[in-house]
Design a protein that fits this description.
4% of the residues lie in helices and 38% in strands. It is built from five helices and 69 strands. Strand 64 (935-939) and strand 65 (942-946) form a beta hairpin. Helix 1 (3-15) packs antiparallel against helix 2 (38-46). The longest helix has 13 residues, at 3-15. The termini are far apart.
Length: 1009
């Protein structure tokens, strides 16, 4: 056969033997440890082949998903009688000579190591099947169907119609999941057999490269350009049900997220399962949803409907027509995750061959087809961009192109598309990269931190390997297990939320929880994975049974990579140790991985290493450190994930309205500037624990920003300018510690302004109202030191409404009124503040004013002795909040008092001042302490409602609005219509309607004529 095939065969024999792999539950998707690059090694060999770029143009060509173009990063496995399958669209006419595939899985469960190769004409393809748009069927993962047969002694299902006896019913049984009965039944995925003679060609399935010599059988199928055909591999097995048999693996490409215009959309990879609930992760679908029979598998590590994947199957043809151009990546020709917002250069080798007419061969155009999206956890919406032309350099077959620079927080997907002189097009594989930044809303990241390495090898407590737990099947306790819980010594702020307990994973990461009962597995369904990234969707605690391969919550990846303490077996040697302790500092919780083991990249055997690093949590100041003594000698520094992410189920997501906070540092060596290295430290300084709602908020900068004081940097998500108060509101483009600021937000957001901790603060105040800020620690208002002669009133916060407080929280802004100019000095206390009960308003009458946008203020009214006993503030309020304010005019506050003893015949009025443009407003009341006389809601001299019990009224104009006490109000005892007057022969008549309670009343007047 062809030289290219021989080169690949030799390569397959040495590069894939005993490749270390990682298994997820049920053995369906196997994550491969990323070490030696299959793609790079294969490319170097394939480029030297005659059919590559040597200039020799023959009629021998490869098509499909070779590993040099489509990275083999997953092993897709099957058991006993499972069948792997994939459809292809013929790029040229000719005969199929050889089918190739890779086995990157060391175990082979197939009986006699045999798999049976068949080729059928395909009914599913680019025009029919799951995910085709427009079309009736949703995208993969989708169950499809099977034939019933008594010949299958396991579950009575057939993958091929040939599995049936001649007398059996050939009805196809559709298994498409149709929740609302709107989908048609499916039909078989393939039809006429093109090669296989009813059983398939038996081939020994070995580690590395495998090939089925179709040409050698004398039965090479003829294929016409654009034909759709289906290649399948049945795993040889006894005709019986088996439990825990070994899997048989096929190298596969995980294509990530693409677009519907991509030629690989929808996913081409299919599998026939003998049993229901077969896959462990089927395009993100729950395994219990997947039924036996043929299943359109889809992407392995995403539940995005645009996710694609393919088994690394390709085939050679002797062609009789033109073929599309050849696209090869080159070393250094593809960008990776980067901090740079500059343009990114992409370079590929592109050449063309036309066996039908050599003189017409040539590349006409080469372009970069690309799209971009804002980087988020979950489904990113990619927007197609204008194509970018690539021009040859004149050196070999190199074509460079330039993608414009993008802002941080952008994900770019791209692929090269080449067209030859006859209009035939070839698409290169989809690639992507992210523009990342260490600057974020939650933590200030210092990658040049000059730390003191806190080695606890002598003082720490070694984690007992017998205490490790693992949900895998079988569980790999000492390889990918988790230990915990561990009390970190005190409540700690993490992304502005409060956590207390740590769970320690062997593979270089920890996770945090609020409760000791929230058991967290710090692994991917029990195993290591190379697919985690920041940000990412999450699996929440052990009680959550959905999507166990996702990242755990509150995940801190100091050096997430595939490590091992000990292999299976009671006598297995232990490689290093993991410890925890505090180095004598009660504020700290330290986890240290000391000389933990890893795996040989070629044999998969566990090895000793000198990898030593630690994660340090400081619950007193909220800081987190990564310290790297030694990143080892086995290449883990090139495959590790560094960063952290908040828990998406708690405070940080605003009830699911925003993505969880995250910090991306490095993944798989990129960006190179943040690659982990020996004797290196990273420190994360938190922001204040401040989450705010949409609308206006009072905030302050509680930390030292070290020169980074612009409003756009401190509060990047605010949709308004920052306003401070100097007798009136003024814009503050540059912020500082000390003042408070009004800022408006369009959505729920974090607003903690991270920086170095500030534990003391002196604030200058003027006579009258002052809007002040805070330091990095809470402080009781009683502990604030006032300059001589200075007196202050109550302190007020604003959270949609004004409230008095006795403790100032970091990051918030507060109002306080002083009698003269002076200073307020705040100094952090080493002790935690006692819990102080807030004023109790439950025993006093409440009236709430709310505008049409939901902004509200609650006002209180009651007898003076009751107000005094409850400790309520009946004094003046701070200046009005922007856009909305409601208060009593007389007191300029939120509390109105009435005499405990009302004077006979006296009337008491409490006018209300309302500042809003958003009418109508709603007035609600809750009367808990009825007065001697009726409370009424009035508008000037007009009564709007009697305030009894609870109720509400909507009004369009608040002019003259107030509350009256002691008015001469007679409340009807029943519904009644009064006699009209004068008689109806006059131009107008009047009548009264008695309504004993607030109700909707409709009065209809009829003309009897």
């Amino acid at each position: 056969m062809k030289k290219m095939i021989l080169f690949l065969l030799l390569f397959g024999q040495f590069a894939f033997a005993q490749q270390r792999v990682l298994v997820s539950p049920n053995g369906d998707v196997i994550r491969i440890k990323k070490g030696v690059s299959i793609k790079t090694a294969a490319e170097k060999l394939m480029r030297r082949a005659p059919s590559s770029i040597s200039g020799e143009c023959t009629n021998e060509f490869n098509f499909g998903f070779p590993v040099n173009v489509y990275d083999a990063t997953i092993a897709h496995v099957g058991y006993h009688k499972d069948v792997m399958g994939q459809w292809f669209v013929a790029k040229a006419s000719g005969t199929i000579d050889t089918v190739f595939w890779y086995n990157n899985w060391s175990e082979i469960g197939a009986k006699d190591s045999l798999v049976y190769v068949r080729i059928h004409e395909s009914f599913i393809g680019p025009n029919y099947g799951p995910g085709i748009r427009p079309g009736p069927f949703p995208p993969p993962c989708q169950s499809w169907g099977y034939w019933k047969t008594t010949n299958d002694a396991d579950n009575g299902v057939g993958a091929f119609i040939d599995d049936l006896s001649p007398t059996e019913d050939t009805t196809w049984y559709s298994t498409i999941r149709d929740t609302n009965n709107s989908l048609p039944d499916t039909r078989p995925p393939f039809g006429l057999e093109l090669f296989g003679q009813g059983v398939g060609l038996g081939i020994t399935h070995r580690p590395g490269l495998n090939q089925a010599n179709i040409e050698g059988t004398g039965l090479s199928p003829n294929i016409i350009k654009d034909d759709v055909f289906f290649v399948s591999f049945r795993i040889h097995s006894d005709n019986e049900h088996k439990v825990n048999d070994l899997p048989t693996g096929f190298a596969s490409w995980d294509g990530g997220i693409t677009t519907t215009s991509d030629e690989n959309y929808p996913s081409r990879n299919w599998k026939f399962y003998e049993h229901d609930s077969g896959p462990s992760n089927c395009a993100g679908d729950k395994r219990e949803n997947v039924k036996r029979g043929w299943v359109a598998r889809g992407n392995f590590n995403s539940d995005d409907t645009l996710g694609v994947a393919a088994i690394n199957i390709w085939y050679s043809m002797t062609v009789t027509t033109n073929v599309p151009p050849i696209i090869n990546s080159v070393e250094g020709g593809e960008p990776h995750n980067t901090f740079s917002t500059a343009n990114q250069i992409i370079t590929y080798e592109i050449w063309d061959c036309d066996p039908e007419s050599l003189l017409r061969a040539g590349v006409a155009t080469a372009i970069i087809r690309w799209s971009k999206a804002t980087t988020i956890a979950g489904s990113e919406t990619f927007v197609d961009q204008a194509d970018i032309s690539m021009s040859p350099t004149g050196e070999g077959y190199l074509y460079p192109g330039e993608i414009p620079g993008q802002p941080a927080g952008t994900t770019v997907n791209y692929r090269v598309v080449a067209t030859d002189l006859r209009g035939m097009q070839q698409l290169g594989p989809s690639r992507g990269y992210k523009i990342v930044t260490l600057k974020n809303n939650f933590y200030r990241v210092d990658t040049n931190y000059a730390c003191t390495h806190l080695n606890i090898s002598g003082s720490g407590t070694v984690i007992d390997t017998s205490k490790l737990f693992n949900p895998g099947n079988p569980p790999a306790y000492r390889d990918d297990g988790t230990a915990g819980w561990y009390d970190i010594g005190g409540d700690m702020q993490f992304f502005g939320d409060t956590v207390r307990y740590a769970w320690v994973g062997i593979n270089g990461a920890i996770a945090l929880s609020k409760s000791a009962t929230d058991t967290i597995d710090v692994n991917s369904a029990g195993y290591a994975t190379i697919y985690w990234d920041f940000p990412m969707l999450q699996h929440h605690y052990r009680a959550d049974t959905n999507y166990p391969t996702r990242m755990p919550p509150n995940f801190i990846a100091g050096f997430w990579a595939d490590m091992i303490l000990a292999d299976t077996g009671a006598g297995a040697a232990q490689f290093g140790k993991i410890m925890y302790g505090n180095d004598g500092n009660a504020c700290k919780f330290i986890v240290e991985w000391d000389s933990v083991g890893t795996f040989d990249q070629e044999t998969g055997d566990p090895l000793n290493d000198i990898t030593t690093f630690r994660i340090i949590l400081n619950h007193c100041d909220g800081t987190i450190e990564y310290q790297y003594d030694n990143v080892g000698t086995r290449g883990l520094d090139s495959v590790a994930l560094l960063g952290m992410q908040a828990d998406s189920t708690y405070l940080t997501t605003g009830g699911g309205t925003v993505d969880p906070g995250f910090v991306f540092v490095n993944r798989n060596i990129y960006p190179y500037e943040s690659k982990p290295r020996n004797d290196w430290c990273i420190k994360f300084y938190p922001g204040a624990p401040v989450y705010i709602s949409a609308g206006w908020n009072m905030l302050s900068v509680a930390n030292d920003r070290q020169g980074d004081w612009s409003k756009s940097s401190v509060y990047p998500d605010a949709v308004s300018e920052a306003f401070k108060y100097q007798g009136s509101y003024v814009i503050a483009p540059t912020l500082e510690n000390g003042p408070g600021y009004w800022l408006k937000y369009g959505t729920y957001a974090y607003a903690g302004a991270p920086g170095l901790q500030k534990t003391s603060l002196v604030i200058n105040v003027s006579s009258g109202w002052n809007m002040i800020g805070t330091m990095s620690k809470p402080i009781a208002t009683a502990d604030i030191v006032k300059s001589p002669g200075l007196t202050v009133g109550s302190y007020y916060k604003y959270e949609g409404t004004y409230k008095t407080v006795t403790t100032l929280t970091p990051g918030r802004g507060y109002w306080v009124k002083t009698n003269q100019a002076g200073t307020l000095t705040m100094t952090a206390s080493p002790e935690e503040l006692p819990k102080i009960a807030e004023a109790d308003y439950s025993e006093i009458n409440k009236v709430t004013i709310q505008d049409k946008y939901g902004r509200y203020q609650t006002l209180y009214i009651g007898a003076d002795e009751l107000v005094s006993a409850a400790g309520l503030d009946a004094g003046e309020w701070p200046p009005a909040a922007p856009e909305f304010d409601a208060r009593f005019k007389n007191s300029q506050g939120m509390v109105a008092t009435s005499p405990s003893k009302l004077e006979a015949g006296a009337k008491y009025e409490y006018p209300i001042s309302i500042g809003t443009e958003a009418y109508p407003i709603t007035v609600r009341w809750e009367i808990s302490k009825p007065a001697e006389r009726k409370l009424t809601l009035v508008s000037g001299s007009k009564m709007l409602a009697v305030l009894e019990g609870s109720g509400s009224v909507k009004i369009k104009n608040a002019a003259g609005l107030g509350i009256a006490l002691g008015s001469d109000v007679s409340v009807p005892k029943k519904f009644a219509l009064g006699q009209n007057y004068p008689n109806p022969f006059n131009p107008s008549t009047h009548f009264t309607v008695d309504v004993p309670k607030i109700s909707s009343v409709e009065v209809v007047v009829y003309d009897v004529h």
